[in-house]
Specification:
2 domains, 16 helices, Rossmann fold, single chain, Nuclear Transport Factor 2, Chain: A, alpha/beta
Length: 441
């Protein structure tokens, strides 16, 4: 449930920059009122405060079902225990830490300048990140860098082994959604795990803030033309070029490590880029997006037992998205509704023309494919897509990890979105397989 709200809010964040007119205290009061209305089951009053996009994504009945699903997981609402406020890309963002019977959650609301709710997140309360035991902070150092050129310059961090080098190097490419440089999800920071762990083993690591995280409002002005080129590919190639310019980096050993969407796009990033000596695909999908959405919704619906009317509607909406995704009539300026989230037609058309497995098969560089076997988002079906396409590839290595989820942290039985809320680290076995693969090259 929390993942659905988070995804909707991430999409809805791509709006024009707005300037709030009320004080921080005014917005905090509005946010506290929303919590009380949710707790009082006054969902129509909450929905009346949504802007048009949130209202479309979360009509009253869906908001009610999501709130009730949350209470089923965390118990009854008790009280608001703390409130923080911040200005973020023209929005006033209020985060209320709420005590529930079983565990606390953060309710994060983004208000526009008309006091309308332009984003709504229910998120776990993140525990502080701690370094994994395989990282040796005394073995490396970090400093800030800038990726790309105006108007899309991105802040990044270089994590470098101590010593003169030159060292092999990796660019980390995030999954879908507006991610920070650590790919933070709850208490988990898988890219920081990788950066510290690999630098401890003599590998330079470059990670950076994703364009859709840094420039959400600016991208919204031309959302109708957004593709994965602007979202991912251009910046990953700029990051590889930056590494190639560094004297401490071995120019012939620069690699792309993509996770989830980044893994799916890794072959596309590498194709035709002479800077890139190999790619690492972590939980990269090979199935079409429409099929992935349907399979995920069906799986998540099955976790609650017999499929009820609400779940059937969700499955129907997913199947409708899959149909629209494949529609030959779709045009770039149109949108497709993905479970209430508007997806630009340009984005869909771009993805439809890209075959990740076939692109990987055309590459002449080494490829490492990594897959957790407790991953319900990217599954064995995706792994089989890579294995089939790369069966004749001269330098492909495939590694699988029983018990690891989509983040390559321990998964539950059965796997579920709750896996992402558990503090953990990228498994040491995965980290060592990456380091050993690069070392062998």
């Amino acid at each position: 449930m929390n993942r659905i709200l988070t995804s909707a809010a991430a999409s809805l964040a791509l709006l024009s920059i707005l300037t709030p007119q009320l004080s921080a205290q005014d917005f905090e009061a509005l946010a506290k009122g929303v919590v009380q209305e949710l707790a009082g089951r006054q969902f129509d009053k909450v929905e009346a405060q949504f802007d048009a996009r949130v209202s479309s994504a979360l009509p009253t009945e869906k908001l009610q079902s999501l709130w009730e699903a949350t209470l089923a997981q965390v118990g009854a609402f008790k009280a608001v225990t703390s409130v923080t406020s911040a200005e973020l890309q023209g929005y006033h963002v209020i985060t209320l830490t709420c005590a529930f019977e079983k565990t606390p959650l953060n309710l994060r609301l983004a208000f526009d300048n008309e006091s309308k709710i332009a984003g709504l997140h229910l998120l776990p309360v993140a525990a502080p990140w701690t370094a994994p035991d395989y990282a040796s902070p005394s073995a490396f150092h970090e400093h800030s860098v800038t990726i790309g050129t105006d108007p899309w310059q991105l802040p990044g961090t270089l994590t470098e082994p101590n010593g003169a080098g030159p060292f092999p190097a990796i660019v980390l490419v995030q999954g879908s959604g507006p991610h920070d440089e650590d790919e933070t999800i709850g208490s988990n920071k898988p890219f920081k795990d990788l950066a510290w762990g690999l630098a401890s083993r003599g590998i330079v690591v470059l990670r950076y803030e994703k364009r859709t995280h840094k420039y959400a409002a600016q991208l919204a002005k031309d959302l109708g033309n957004l593709t994965v080129k602007e979202e991912v590919t251009d910046d990953a190639r700029a990051a590889a070029a930056l590494l190639a310019s560094r004297p401490e980096v071995r120019k012939d050993h620069i690699y792309i490590l993509g996770h989830s969407l980044g893994g799916m796009l890794a072959p596309r990033i590498a194709e035709g880029d002479d800077h890139i000596a190999g790619i690492i695909i972590m939980a990269g999908s090979t199935r079409p997006l429409g099929q992935i959405v349907v399979d995920q919704v069906k799986y998540l619906s099955s976790l609650s037992g017999p499929v009820g009317d609400g779940a059937k509607k969700q499955i129907g909406a997913a199947e409708k998205f899959a149909q629209d995704y494949d529609s030959p009539a779709l045009k770039p300026g149109e949108t497709v509704s993905m479970m209430g989230i508007p997806v630009p037609g340009s984005y869909v058309l771009d993805l439809r023309t890209y075959d990740p497995a076939a692109t990987a098969a055309r590459l002449k560089i080494p490829i490492l494919v990594l897959q957790g076997l407790s991953d319900y988002q990217v599954t064995r079906a995706d792994l089989e897509g890579w294995e089939k396409a790369l069966a004749g590839h001269n330098n492909t290595t495939v590694k699988t990890y029983p018990g690891l989820c989509h983040l390559f942290t321990p998964g539950g039985d059965p796997p579920s979105p709750a896996d992402y809320d558990k503090p953990g680290h990228v498994a040491k076995s995965t980290l060592e397989d990456i380091a050993n693969w690069i070392g062998a090259l």
